[in-house]
Design brief:
six-stranded mixed sheet; three-stranded antiparallel sheet; 11 strands; mainly beta; Immunoglobulin-like; 127 residues
């Protein structure tokens, strides 16, 4: 799933203090940009991947897979390149790569005010 979005662009280096955190904890993020990151932010994103089947008309027929991403926290990239932290909600789902339903977490890059994600670094959220 994480391959659905591109890795972080070459002009931005993102380092997570830990690649796994527990629900309710903060993800500490250090970053460094070549040039000014004005207008960009890092987001803590949960991707819900769902695959189902149709039972009314054709039993067992697969339904197209769906992915929905939900932003749980965000922080603007300040010009100074300061470290930042993003909080995983205590009641959020943990990382789970199931066949029918899956939950994937990551720190994503996006322009402020836009929905499109421009870069992705995977994160594992533990129960």
């Amino acid at each position: 799933m994480a391959g659905a979005w591109p890795p972080m662009p070459e002009w931005l280096r993102v380092e997570l203090a830990s690649s796994a955190v527990r629900r309710g904890e903060r993800v500490r993020v250090r970053w460094k940009a070549d040039g000014s990151p004005d207008g960009y932010e890092l987001r803590l994103v949960l991707v819900v991947h769902h695959r189902g089947s149709v039972t009314m008309n054709a039993p067992g027929q697969a339904v197209p897979e769906r992915q929905v991403h939900v932003v749980h926290d965000r922080a603007a990239l300040a010009p100074a390149g300061d470290a930042l932290s993003l909080r995983v909600p205590a009641d959020a789902p943990y990382s789970y790569a199931g066949r029918i339903l899956a939950f994937f977490w990551g720190v994503a890059l996006a322009r402020a005010g836009r929905e499109e994600l421009e870069g992705w670094t995977a994160l594992r959220v533990l129960p």
